[in-house]
Amino acid sequence: MKKSPIKKQRVYKIVIDKIKESLKNGELQPGEKLPSERELTNLFDVSRSSIREAISVLEAEGVVKIRPGIGVFLVPYTKEYLLEKLSDIFQLETNDYLIKLLELRQGIESQAAYYAAKRRNHTQLQHLEAALNDLKNILLNNQHEVEKDFNFHNQIVKASQNEMMIESLDLISGRIIQGLRQSGIYSMELPGRNETLIMEHIDIFESIKNGEPYKAHQAMHYHLEMVIKDVLGRDE
After folding, report:
1. Lowest-confidence range among 5-9, 101-105, 155-159, 196-200?
2. Any idea what DSSP says for residue 108?
3. C-alpha dihedral, 106 to 107 to 109 to 111, nearest 10°
4. pLDDT, tens digit, 9 for 90 and up, residues 6-47
5. Is 1 a domain residue?
6. Rg of the Cα trace of the chain?
7. What is the mean pLDDT of residues 99-118?
8. Domain check: are 71 and 151 in the same one?
9. How far is CA 170 from CA 24, 112, 207, in A?
10. How far apart, in whole angstroms, are the C-alpha atoms of residue 27 and residue 96?
11. The domain containing residue 32 runs over which residues?
12. Residue 102 lies in a domain
């Protein structure tokens, strides 16, 4: 891979695009180990955090595998498969795609919240409360860490104790994480939105904690509807 400085705007996405280019022109091959984090930082003249963010997205999308202590490897599939997966990542640049994803999440997660309120056990409730506290802390500090946001929602689906829901969420987890990254940017641009986001998540948690399935369903549906409005607001 040749040294290629890039601009700082949406850096992690540009890093991904550069990796795609390297795969397309043969500088990288399926199954091959990527340059180290330090080498990628030097190649693209970006921060290590931007490289880590790009790798996180690629891992979530199933493009790379991280082998602790060894390195990051492209999955050993065909070049065509990897290029298609890399192209799919950028579909979430469009608000239309993001809204469709949020509508799908409404169907799965609202119902998961309903069953979590009926079936959750003590340990699952503890995990959900810990996830809520993590999410509250980052929002209070005007930050948005998508993994912590996703963890809260994932704990609810697990607490539904419905294997089909759990598997369904797992199948689209990469898209959800990418969508959370984009919708989070939109939401944080709105004055006071972090505070209302905290309240929406608290309402979901309290409904599940108190064993109120209909309220849990309604609270989750409302929360995701508000996120859809955040995205739509960007087009106004």
Report:
1. 5-9
2. H
3. 130
4. 443 467 778 888 888 888 888 889 999 999 999 999 988 888
5. no
6. 19
7. 95
8. no
9. 29, 13, 24
10. 34
11. 11-88
12. yes
Residue 140's SS3 state is helix
Beta-bridge partner residues of 67: 71
Take residue 97 and report the two structure tokens written for it. Answer: 């795609």
Q: Are 137 and 180 in contact (CB under 8 A)?
A: no
CATH number reported for the structural domain that contains residue 191 in this entry: 1.20.120.530
Last residue of a domain, one of 69, 88, 107: 88
Provide φ and ψ at 229, rounded to 5°: -65, -35
Neighbours of 32 (CB within 10 A): 12
182 within 8 A of 144, measured Cβ to Cβ:
no
CA-to-CA distance for 187 and 42, rounded, in angstroms? 33
Q: Residue 126 contacts by C-beta under 8 Å, 6 or more apart in sequence?
A: none
Q: Which of 88, 113, 131 is the last residue of a domain?
A: 88
Task: Read off the pLDDT band of 124 (50, 70, 90).
Answer: very high
Instruction: Report the share of the chain in percent with pLDDT over 70.
Output: 92
- 208 to each of 53, 166, 218, how far by Cα in Å? 32, 17, 11
Per-residue confidence (pLDDT) for residue 133, from 0 to 100: 97
Chain centroid to CA 146: how far? 5
Residue 83: both structure tokens together: 């290029």
Asked if 186 contacts 231 with a C-beta cutoff of 8 angstroms, the reply is yes
Which pTM value belongs to this model? 0.70
54-74 in b/e form (b: 16+ CB < 10 A) is: bbbbbbbbebbeeeeeeebeb
